[in-house]
Amino acid sequence: MRFSIYRYNPEADAAPTMQTMELADADITPDMMLLDALRLLKAQDESFTFRHSCGEGVCGSDAVNINGRNGLACITPVVDLAQPITIRPLPGMPVIRDLVVDLSQFYHQYRAIKPYLVVHDPEPEVEYLQTPQQRDKLDGLYECVLCGCCSTACPSFWWNPDKFRGPAALLQAYRFIADSRDQATAERLDALEGPYRLFRCHTVMNCVDVCPKGLNPTKAIGQIKKIMLKHLI
Amino acid sequence: MTIPVRKFDTLVIGAGGGGLRAALQLAQAEANVAVVSKVFPTRSHTVAAQGGMNAALANVSPDNWHWHMYDTVKGGDFLGDQDAIEYMCRAAPRLVVELEHIGVPFSRLDNGKIYQRPFGGQSQNFGGEQAARTCAAADRTGHAILHALYQQNIRAKTHFFDEYFAIDLIRDNDGCILGALVLEIETGEPLIIQAKTTLIATGGAGQLFRTNTNARINTGDGMAMALRAGIPLQDMEFFQFHPTGIAGKGMLISEAVRGEGGYLVNGDGERFMERYAPNARDLASRDVVSRAVATEIHEGRGCGPNKDYILLKVDHLGADVIRKRLPGIRDMVMTFLHIDPINQPIPIFPTAHYTMGGIPTNRFGQVVVPQQQGAEDIVPGLYAVGECACVSVHGANRLGGNSLLDIVVFGRAAGNHIIEYLKENRYGRTVVAQHSIDTALAHLARWDQRSQGVSNETVDGLRNELKAVMDHYCGVFRTEDVLRTGLDKVLKIEQRLQNVYLKDHSKIFNTARIEAFELENLVDLALATVASALARKESRGAHMRMDYPQRDDVKWLKHSLFFKGGQLDYKPVRMKPLTVEGFSPKPRVY
Ligand SMILES: Cc1cc2nc3c(=O)[nH]c(=O)nc-3n(C[C@H](O)[C@H](O)[C@H](O)COP(=O)(O)OP(=O)(O)OC[C@H]3O[C@@H](n4cnc5c(N)ncnc54)[C@H](O)[C@@H]3O)c2cc1C
Ligand code: SF4
User: Fold this and answer.
1) pLDDT tens digits, residue range A28-51?
2) Report field, pTM of the whole predicted structure over 0.95
3) What spacing in Å lies between the alpha carbon of B392 and ligand 2's midpoint?
4) Residue B451 has pLDDT above 90, yes or no
5) Fewer beta carbons below 10 Å: N end or C end of chain B?
6) Rounded Cα–Cα distance for residues A8 and A12 (Å)
7) Does residue B201 have its Cβ closer than 6 Å to ligand 1?
8) Which of B103, B114, B458 sits opposite A116 (nearest CB)?
9) Which domains are present in chain B?
């Protein structure tokens, strides 16, 4: 199986290169995931660098660009991929080394939406009550693993990573707006006003297409816009 | 070489549920806290917890903390410390409500309260009917809790050192722990984080085994750091094998599947758990179910062409229950097995899951070591919580749903104790002993050594061997001979580790170097595990000796303590709870 892999070691290389790497057919099993393949490649060349941890698509560490599309290596079967399998770091982010990118901007935007429940009322001794229907509104939102696949596939985020919050952060903004327990909707909406933070979304929908958890940031952004409109009137 | 130094009130090593719960308590009390984690916090393995967290809320079935306490003591085969268990079970309802208040999206009942499901080993009224005690956010409870804790820490302005790898603890001349030497992974630069108090919350060591449910980062670094600092590890022979890992791969299929009504069948289509546990059946405690699964396969009653797995039947639950209560499991089964559990059973096999042993602590999270006269000494300034610690609330076998509880209960308790400690030691100790820094730096420099001759040993090769040895020689069923061979093999691997050299000596994001440090830690923990298992000549909880099949309360109702170098010591189990009467050992039937 042939791979073409983005290699860049800032201590040794003047510029990044695409390196051809190969695995023997005997090493490939039908149910192999891309992460398994990357680990075998690392066993051949220990300097090959990428992040990974849980191996089952829940920690969000191993987001990379696979044949032009962002995804999590650990839940991407290799047999389905056209060869040479081309692996690059997530697009638009500064590269630290090989497939490892600097996600500071991405995390910054996440922190900026104040991703925590805000309640002003005094706390009861028991749980806040929430009906199953109210709770259902959080499905499709809270499951985000912060992998960065969506935001780094978004042209608006590439051009304005410092100003546009990006799909992942906006999905989380909506997660709290949609939570019947949260009491900061007005502040949350105010904080998203202006031409950039929310409104740079041009519904290109790359985020929906790549999200490995099947989430829909575009829809969440649409919902925020709708609520904002209502709020204005 | 002068190493930069940063100073904090508290250093928390580990940003899983345990570390983040403690950090939150501290940050809210305006202590100056640094949290170091080798991965971005929400990538810690708490994120993978599926089924839920136990608390006697009684939202679904009648319940109270005392029944929960009984189940925990019995589940742990009477090796748990009953003061800590009482404390945990009493605190549980409050801690769940607290998590709900900070935003955890628990699933709900029609009356708006938190949804609870039955889990293994849970009973009403001290061994009566099945209880439903596990509070769940669908089957993504760990994700929900970890993210909420991280979010609240953002709010509380906790200081994070993301992608920093802790190498070793540092101390003053009196043995008081004053922080740690850490490595910034991105730059490869060392940093000393000096702190009046240090909390280890580095999680478990599931990477000791080839087939496991754990993340690659679960290499038990904190436990190994403690060993190197002269602290023993407690009860390391007790490693939990979860009965339902995906066959051939190891990923976890949560007990929640059986809690929702799934059950196991063998190759004859028999619901065999009825033979092993007539009352609790598929919801007996994990050690019991794992042994039953392994026995069925061993005796030729497995499923499939090679009769090498068991089937977990779920299709009778109906599409609605599976979609609503087990969506993450369904995704995982579809991704890794290409089948849909809505209409097909899941092939399973026992898989290494949870480290019951760890750094010995009391119920305030303070690390304790044996003293000559039998009493225990506290290691000043050092705390440990979560899977790396051994309080011990899980004894010889942890109940499902009790670890998420453990990490938040003792994370919070340790946070509170540290706050008191800081008040009393405001101008505390400040002089780190040079020899302690030198030792840590020497350790750091180990992987800068370059190969002189040709050595074909590699980190990857040796790690694979170690894991295979642990699978073969320290698994579900153990005997003297098997363990002795295992110990020899691990000792040889320890020797051979000295001949391993890295080829990659770069500084920036050098993961080869990190993996080498992790392998050293794993080797230390493998020795602790096999040696403790070899010494314990009885069967209790997860530790099953075919040559000593009975529990022996006369000789072995005690905790083991393994010291680096191989020495073993023992200490009594705390049988006396805080306020109620203790539960004395009796035969354990489910
Ligand atoms: C698949 C799975 C499902 C589970 N489901 C449940 C469940 O439903 N209910 C339940 O109660 N329990 C469950 N458990 C168990 C439970 O999730 C864990 O025991 C618990 O989350 C451990 O939390 P922790 O905070 O101790 O450690 P972790 O969450 O593992 O965190 C460890 C932290 O330490 C850091 N760290 C480690 N080494 C270093 C180092 N050298 N330098 C710097 N940082 C370091 C890591 O980066 C990480 O931040 C499950 C476990 C698994 C594997
Ligand atoms: S929304 Fe999806 S793609 Fe975006 S960060 Fe979250 S999980 Fe990743």
Assistant:
1) 999 999 999 999 999 999 999 999
2) yes
3) 38
4) no
5) N
6) 8
7) yes
8) B103
9) 242-351 (3.90.700.10), 450-572 (1.20.58.100)
